[in-house]
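Long-time lurker, first post. I've been practising inverse folding by hand and with some scripts of my own, and I keep getting stuck on stretches where the structure tokens seem ambiguous. Below is the full token string for one chain I'm working on. Before anyone asks, I'm not after the true native sequence, just a reasonable design that respects the backbone. If someone could post their per-position residues I'd love to compare against what I wrote down in my notebook.
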């Protein structure tokens, strides 16, 4: 009887120890699972934070590039506006200077008019005088008179807007007459002096230039 009880007690104790061990293993397993899950969560959270920082850095870099591009564009626009304003001012100054020059003339001729030229007046009298000084005979003046009647009507402000020819001899461009004097826009004598030099150099005489003009419509 006692031996049987002893055997039963031993078996009961063994079962209890087994159950206790199993319970302990289950609890330990749960703790290990919890720890593993916590580690995994921490790793995921760290990855998310790193990804978030990377995105923030990318956004910051994009904003910096955008600001730089905007600043460069603004700088270029300001430079272009400054250049355009400068060109506009230059053109306006030239326009005003040209208008003043056109309204300021003509520059008076102070030289003596010879008796053979006194039948003429204004620019024609100046032209006759300077032609004689250039070494041409008075017989050449009718040719010169007809030539520049056709070209400009002896108007020192005559301007061909399509070609840019200017003045009594219709120099093309008019600035060529600046080789004689800076007042080429308003001084008939300056224009005539240049024109006579051109005629002599290319056609020998005013009548030679007039003959060429009649045959070709220009000289």
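-- Answer (accepted) --
I ran through it position by position. Result:
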């Amino acid at each position: 009887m006692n031996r049987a009880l002893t055997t039963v007690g031993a078996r009961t104790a063994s079962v209890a120890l087994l159950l206790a061990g199993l319970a302990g293993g289950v609890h330990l397993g749960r703790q290990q699972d919890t720890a593993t899950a916590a580690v995994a969560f921490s790793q995921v959270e760290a990855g998310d934070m790193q990804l978030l920082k990377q995105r923030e850095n990318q956004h910051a870099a994009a904003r910096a590039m955008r600001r730089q591009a905007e600043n460069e564009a603004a700088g270029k626009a300001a430079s272009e506006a400054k250049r355009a304003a400068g060109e506009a001012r230059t053109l306006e100054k030239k326009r005003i200077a040209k208008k003043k020059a056109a309204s300021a003339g003509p520059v008076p001729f102070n030289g003596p008019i010879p008796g053979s030229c006194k039948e003429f007046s204004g620019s024609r009298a100046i032209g006759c005088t300077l032609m004689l000084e250039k070494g041409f005979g008075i017989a050449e003046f009718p040719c010169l008179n007809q030539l520049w009647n056709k070209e400009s009507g002896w108007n020192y402000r005559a301007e061909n807007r399509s070609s840019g020819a200017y003045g009594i001899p219709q120099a093309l461009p008019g600035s060529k007459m600046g080789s004689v004097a800076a007042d080429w826009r308003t001084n008939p004598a300056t224009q005539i002096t240049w024109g006579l030099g051109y005629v002599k150099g290319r056609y020998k005489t005013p009548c030679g230039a007039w003959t060429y003009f009649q045959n070709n419509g220009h000289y």
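A couple of notes from the structure itself: Residues 33 and 206 are 119 Å apart (CA to CA). Confidence is low (pLDDT under 50) at residues 1-5. Happy to go over any region you disagree with.
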